[in-house]
Structure formats: structure tokens, C-alpha cells
Amino acid sequence: MGQGIMADRADGDFGVCTSALFSCVLIAGYNEASGFVGAYHYPANRIEDPEVISDMNEWAFEVEPTSVVLIFARDAGGSGQLGTTSDDRHNLQEWVRHRCGVDPQTLEATAAAVSLIGGHFHAGRSTDIACQGIDQGHSTDVSRHQKGIHMSDGGFILFGRRR
């Protein structure tokens, strides 16, 4: 959580899968003109945290998404104790509208995925997308990387701090 990734995939494939979403949100963005694609794993109830909003703004500046999908955590147990809060839902939708200049699509999931395969952008439940078409033998666990530019594995940029 609190990390984002961005890659230039105008002529290549990209996939990101999260572990479980308990109360956090996966922000998925794509710029159709540039081919930039990215994901940011928003930590719940941290929209006022200066480090988090700075990382989100930097991610949005670099990706310049023309399409955004917010994948909210779903309360899988029905207890009302898990899932994305209504405040976070509202605040993140407003952030996307103001910072990215687009109306986000929204959905709920217990785990999420983003893919760009053959120029087709998809973001949603990992059970629906499952990073289809991505060669798992060439995957990278980015949680083990520090923020910055990484030229390995096709090249990508990481934002934020490992938490």
C-alpha cells in the first residue's frame, strides 16, 4: 500500500495484481494517447496524509490518465468492518475528477488487477482479469523494489514508499 507503478506500454503488455483489498483502493489509470499505464495502491483513510497525496499527485502527473478505474475494497464478510469507507470513496472520486480531469469508473472487489494487453486496458476484479496473457515467468514482485526508475523487466517507475 502507498505505492504506485507506471510504465510506457504503447507497444507491450503490462499487468498488476494486488493481494486482498480489505479497506484500501486500487487506482488504475491509462493514457490512450501515450500508452502510459499505471496503478496506485491507496492506503485506506490516508487522503489527508501529505506523503500519500504527494505520491498520488506525482503518479497522476506522470501517467496523465485519460481513463481511471477506482477499485474499492468490498466487505466480503458482510460485517461492515471491512471495505472502503464512504468518505474514502467520495474523496478519491473527487481527487480523480480534480487532479486527473476525468470521471472515474468504480467497482468493488476483494482483490484487483490491471492489465494492458495488445493495447486493451482493463481494470477490475482479479478473478475477472487475473493478468490474463501476462507471462508469469517474466513477472516481478515490485513490493521488493524501492521507488524510482527501474529499467529491468521492460522498464517501470515506482512511486511512494514501502509501508
How would you sum up this structure, described in words?
By secondary structure, the chain is α+β, with helices and mostly antiparallel strands. The protein has one domain (3-140, 148-155): 60s Ribosomal Protein L30, Chain: A (2-Layer Sandwich), CATH 3.30.1330. Helix content is 20%, strand content 36%. The radius of gyration is 15 Å and the shape is globular. The relative contact order is 0.25.
Largest pleated sheet? 7 strands, mixed
Strand portion, in percent? 35-45%
Tally of DSSP helical segments: 3
Which sequence of strands runs across the widest sheet?
A: 6-5-3-4-1-10-9
Tally of DSSP β-strands:
10
Which range best describes the helical content: under 10%, 10-25%, 25-40%, 40-55%, 55-70% or over 70%? Answer: 10-25%
SSE-based structural type: alpha+beta
First and last CA, distance: 6 Å
CATH C-level name: Alpha Beta
Query: What is the 3D shape?
Result: globular
Low-confidence stretches: none
Mean pLDDT value: 81
Number of domain units: 1
Radius of gyration: 15 Å
SSE arrangement, N to C: EEEEHEHEEEHEE
- CATH third-level topology: 60s Ribosomal Protein L30, Chain: A
Going by CATH, the architecture would be 2-Layer Sandwich
